[in-house]
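Write out the 3D structure for:
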Amino acid sequence: MGAYILRRLALVIPTLLGIMVINFALTQFVPGGPIEQIIANLQGQGDVTAGFTGNGPDTANMFEEASNSDYAGARGLPPEFIEKLEKEFGFDKPPLTRFMLMLWNYVRLDFGDSYFGAGTVIELVIDKMPVSITLGLWSTLIAYLVSIPLGIRKAVRDGSRFDNVTSGIIIVAYAIPGFLFAVLLLVLFAGGSYWQIFPLRGLVSDNWEELSILGKIADYFWHITLPVLASTISAFATLTLLTKNSFLDEIKKQYVITARAKGQTERKVLYGHVFRNAMLIVIAGFPSVFIGVFFSGSLIIETLFSLDGLGRLGFEAALQRDYPVIFGTLFIFGLIGLVVGILSDLMYVFVDPRIDFEKREG
């Protein structure tokens, strides 16, 4: 197993490099880069310096300098200003040089400063992380705690009225988009048109620091109830059917028939023999399920519930062409995803020690 893990770890570097090369190359052909974004804002009307408060290039002073010149506005920008702007952002260098410099900085864990945000990329990610961890962790845990018992019961009572009714509910739940379910929750329970039971926005209340420990815990769960429910609905449906089908496949195998023939109770057969094999794919997939909920589908949920998480961070960075945030988060999340893939394999071995990836590869 050790040799297999070393081989998987060795593949992380070329895989991550390939991800970065492809995405960096794609950005070279996407119109409206950060320089164009700044020029468009500068030539428009209004406060063009408001959105540029990062630790990166000194765009605010450059805006003020250009705005006070005779070339600002409809009369165009001086070439000297554009050249200075490109130098500040590093776009005076060839793409290959910029890419190699970016990789060298990433090797040293230097992900740079956001062009338009107040802070470094790491500071922004850490600041947004609690929201995404909340949605990902609690949604995954609730999905597993509900789906596994329900899936087992559906498998045992396959074809019964209980199985048919719950299957109908699950199919309806799976068909409802998460954002639509979130809107329904807001309308019903957050003061939309009916009851004001849960708060409309935020992860905690404004007076959270003044609350007792129990008060903080209660306030935290009070705020996350609706967004977590909205994030859980699709994962819950998929995981329930996966659990049921896994159990049905195992129940029909010969070793189950043999165990019953030996006089073992149905409970012992179910949980002593079937459970380990049936739960292999379900339990071992926990890391990947968590990462899936953690990174995907959170943008609309965060927006609806006014939660400032990684989903909104990535979306806003893409709109603003904030390349340090885009590539920094891509590198970090790509690395996490690859490591989670290895952890998933380790989970398979932990759940069923009979699995040997080295022999399978041989």
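DSSP finds 17 helices and no strands in the chain.
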